[in-house]
Amino acid sequence: QAAYDRVRRAKKEAAARTQKLDEKRKKVKLDLEAREREAQSQENEEEEIRITRSLEEEIIRLREEGSRQLEEQQRLVREQIRLEREQHSRGKQERNGAEGKITPKLKLRWKCRKEDETGGGYSKDVLLQILQKYGDVLNLLISSRKTGSAVVEFATVKAAEMAVKNEVGLLNNPLKISWLEGQPQSHPSTVLPDSTSQPRSSQASVVSERDYESLVMMRMRQAAERQQLIEQLQREDEEEKSHT
């Protein structure tokens, strides 16, 4: 009986030791798993922090780059506006300075059918022969679109005046000559100029001023739209960061 009890006690002790060993192994295993989870969590957190920091740095970089680009764009716009102002001012001064130096130009008209290959009897050589007796002809342009029409530019006002007053052209196809540009105010011809021709220079000046103002406003609007786009991108980046 005593021997049997010793065997049973030995088995119980062995079983208890095995159970304790299993519990230790289980605890060690759980500890390892917990440490691994903690390490993984810490690693994930560090990775998230790193990604967040990278995103923040990228946003800052883009914002700075956008600001630099916007500043450069605004600088270029200002520079272009300045240059255009100077060109506009120079052009205005040149136009004002050239008002008294306009060479006299006359408009020539005669009857001519489109299918008439002879041009109604008026070729460039014929017109030059007719007109050069009044003085030097600087330019002569026969219209290719409107038949029976040409423009002549004389070197002197006197030559142009004589041509307007005296020239009739070919007897079988007379010329109609009128002032186009450079008519002297003190000696108006019998052919009255178009009533709309006098304020033409002032109208052109007004149109030029309006075009210039429109250009300036367009450049400023483009710069403002670019600034709005940059701000919108920044807001979207910040909203995306807050959601994550």
Account of the protein in words:
- The protein is α+β, with helices and mostly antiparallel strands.
- It is 65% helix and 11% strand.
- The strands form 2 sheets. It has a 4-stranded antiparallel beta sheet with strand order 2-3-1-6.
- A hairpin with a 2-residue loop joins β4 and β5.
- α1 runs antiparallel to α4.
- It starts with a helix and ends with a helix.
- 9% of the residues are buried.
Brief write-up:
The chain has about 240 residues and is of the alpha+beta class.
Topology (elements, then pairings):
Elements: H1 2-97, E1 105-109, H2 124-131, E2 137-142, E3 149-154, H3 157-166, E4 169-170, E5 173-174, E6 176-181, H4 200-243
Antiparallel strand pairs: 1-3, 1-6, 2-3, 4-5
Helix pairs in contact: 1-4
Q: Which terms would index this structure?
A:
4 helices; single chain; 65% helix; two-stranded antiparallel sheet; rod-shaped; Alpha-Beta Plaits; nucleus; 2 domains; 244 residues
What is the quaternary state of this protein? single chain
- Strands, count: 6
β-strand amount: 5-15%
From the N-terminal CA to the C-terminal CA, the straight-line distance is 74 Å
Q: Provide the low-confidence segments as ranges.
A: 187-207
Structural class by helix and strand composition: alpha+beta
Number of helices: 4
Radius of gyration computed on alpha carbons? 48 Å
